[in-house]
Amino acid sequence: MTLPALFIAHGSPMMALEDNEYTRFLEQLGRELPVPRGIAVFSAHWDDPDQRLTEDAKHGTMHDFYGFPEEMYQITYPAPGSAELAAQIRKRFEAGNLYAKAVTGRGLDHGVWVILRKMYPDANIPVVALSVDSKRSPSEQYSIGAMLSDLRQEGILIIGSGGLVHNLRMVHKSDEPDEWAAAFDEWIAEQLSEWNLHQLFAYDKKAPHASDAVPSYGREHFVPLFYAMGAADRGRKAKRLFQSYQYGSLSLNCWSFE
């Protein structure tokens, strides 16, 4: 069983309570995919210069957001961890000359549990959360993802959780997409369809409206794309499964890589 690697936009934390086209898509995606043996998630909300990963037997739930309804802070996603999967990941990182530090007691941030709660509501699949490093080059991020590519053949679902257009300073009350956000997303889609790494690795200089879509203070939401792509380096096939917007420019998208 070979699973795809996925890039999934986690949107606003409120997605945990919402019932809309995107949340229903994620629920259906979880039903359609073969049941994973484990899940490894590179999360935009764990940005660290050192590669880190969780090694808990059971995860707590981080409520790493402010100013939301009280109901949000009562949600839990008590997924099990997996020391075995964490060890397999660390072994592959070490083989790629990447030092990785295991962490316990952190819990799953909302970049992980919001999407998994929609896809796998029973919280019964082992999860290992992984950090990203937004200051690394895209080629380095891609290479880190590629170190885990063979795990997909062993029933491990690899996810990059973030957002291709994620600039909270430019959101507003509209579900109609801003033209600049759609233009950036479409440029990314064109490059992904050709697996054009040369262009994608230089997205900040090549893509239209890149500085608005991926502001300097928000690169961590874009870079999980490269980690997920790297995990499919052998096949290099990309398929967009979903695209919509909230708040004018908050891009809700899902890409599958095989």
From TrEMBL:
Co-factor requirement: Zn(2+)
The keyword Metal-binding appears for this protein: yes
Keyword terms of this UniProt record: Metal-binding, Oxidoreductase, Zinc
Pfam families from the UniProt entry: LigB
Domain of life (superkingdom): Bacteria
Residue ranges occupied by any Extradiol ring-cleavage dioxygenase class III enzyme subunit B domain in the UniProt entry: 5-250
GO MF term (any one): zinc ion binding
PANTHER family in the record: 4,5-DOPA DIOXYGENASE EXTRADIOL-LIKE PROTEIN (PTHR30096)
Membership in a protein family: Belongs to the DODA-type extradiol aromatic ring-opening dioxygenase family.
Name recorded for this polypeptide: MFS transporter
Organism annotation: Paenibacillus solani
